[in-house]
């Protein structure tokens, strides 16, 4: 495990290089511990049973300078009960402890039941002092999902020189960029979900980096909607209806995850244009 001083050094360096807001040391510690969790996962049988996805996968496996994240999202690639998942996680905790001296433990299930997802929290003890409030990472494991693009074996990124003890080359199964973009699109078309990070992540993939063309993802988007019993025509208007809610939550949800947060209006307009060009919205 790195020293607390390395976390402080990283926080100071990011502020000096990027300006803007100082990224909280607690966010940097969580990022470091998440990386070690993924390294531990790479050394156990569980790595072949789940696929890593979402914004944290973008940072930890696709883009070394991406926004920080606070949770872990996976999709089950084979049928597992909640109890079996917890059993499979025990060797992951052991590997992490043995290699880094970071302690991970199961904390609690999410009090809200989810129809197609196992949601629970892990506690961790990293370089920063233990506080009165438990340090937790939320884990979501989707039980059934239409995975259109085959998950790829990708190495966990080191991201920061200050994370000096992180090994290089630890590989896990990860959603490719087109799969992540397709899932983010479906999330933005879901009336029941309003998460600014979905908008930010999709903007980054389709506009900022131009790595994904949404028109190419239409078959995947349609397949994912069909898996949920929906058609694209049923949900075309949902993105427009969310604009005010997304804008209201933009700063509070994302400001701690990066030094310089792009303006909401610019991001929303760009994604709106991408949706229209791809034929997703009118």
Explained architecture:
- By secondary structure, the chain is of the alpha+beta class.
- The chain has 2 domains: 175 residues, Nuclear Transport Factor 2, Chain: A, CATH 3.10.450.620; 106 residues, no CATH class.
- Helix content is 46%, strand content 15%.
- It has a 5-stranded mixed beta sheet. A two-stranded antiparallel ribbon has the order 6-7.
- It is globular and about 55 Å long.
Q: Which key terms come to mind for this protein?
A:
2 domains; 46% helix; globular; Nuclear Transport Factor 2, Chain: A; 11 helices
How would you summarize this macromolecular structure in one to three sentences?
With 282 residues, the protein is α+β, with helices and mostly antiparallel strands.
The proportion of residues forming helix, as a percent range, comes to: 40-55%
What integer value in Å does the Rg equal?
A: 19 Å
The total count of strands amounts to: 7
Quaternary structure classification: single chain
N-to-C CA distance: 51 Å
Average pLDDT number: 96
Number of domains: 2
- Given the helix and strand composition, which structural class is it? alpha+beta
Number of helical segments with 4 or more residues: 11
Sequence of strands across the biggest β-sheet: 1-2-5-4-3
CATH superfamily of the largest domain: JHP933, nucleotidyltransferase-like core domain
C-alpha geometry: globular
- State the low-pLDDT regions, or none: none
H/E element string? HHEHEHEEEEEHHHHHHH
The largest β sheet comes out as: 5 strands, mixed
């Amino acid at each position: 495990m790195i020293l607390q001083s390395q976390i402080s050094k990283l926080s100071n360096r990011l502020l000096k290089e990027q300006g803007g807001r100082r990224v909280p040391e607690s966010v940097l510690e969580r990022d470091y511990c998440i990386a070690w969790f993924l390294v531990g996962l790479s050394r156990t049988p569980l790595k072949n049973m789940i696929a890593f996805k979402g914004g944290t996968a973008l940072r930890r496996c696709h883009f070394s300078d991406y926004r920080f994240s606070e949770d872990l999202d996976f999709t089950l690639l084979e049928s597992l009960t909640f109890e079996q998942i917890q059993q499979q996680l025990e060797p992951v905790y052991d590997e992490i402890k043995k290699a880094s001296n970071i302690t991970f433990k199961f904390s609690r299930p999410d009090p809200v039941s989810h129809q197609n997802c196992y949601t629970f929290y892990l506690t961790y003890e990293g370089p920063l002092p233990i506080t009165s409030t438990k340090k937790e990472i939320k884990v979501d494991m989707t039980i059934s999902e239409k995975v259109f693009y085959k998950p790829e074996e990708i190495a966990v990124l080191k991201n920061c020189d200050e994370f000096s003890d992180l090994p290089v080359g630890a590989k896990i199964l990860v959603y490719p960029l087109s799969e992540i973009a397709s899932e983010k699109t479906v999330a933005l078309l879901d009336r029941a979900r309003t998460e600014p990070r979905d908008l930010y992540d999709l903007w980054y993939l389709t506009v900022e980096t131009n790595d994904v063309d949404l028109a190419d993802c239409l078959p995947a988007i349609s397949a994912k909607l069909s898996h949920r019993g929906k058609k694209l025509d049923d949900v075309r208007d949902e993105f427009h209806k969310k604009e005010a809610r997304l804008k209201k939550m933009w700063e509070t949800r994302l400001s701690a995850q990066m030094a310089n947060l792009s303006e909401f209006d610019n991001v929303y307009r760009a994604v709106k244009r991408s949706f229209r060009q791809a034929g997703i919205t009118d």
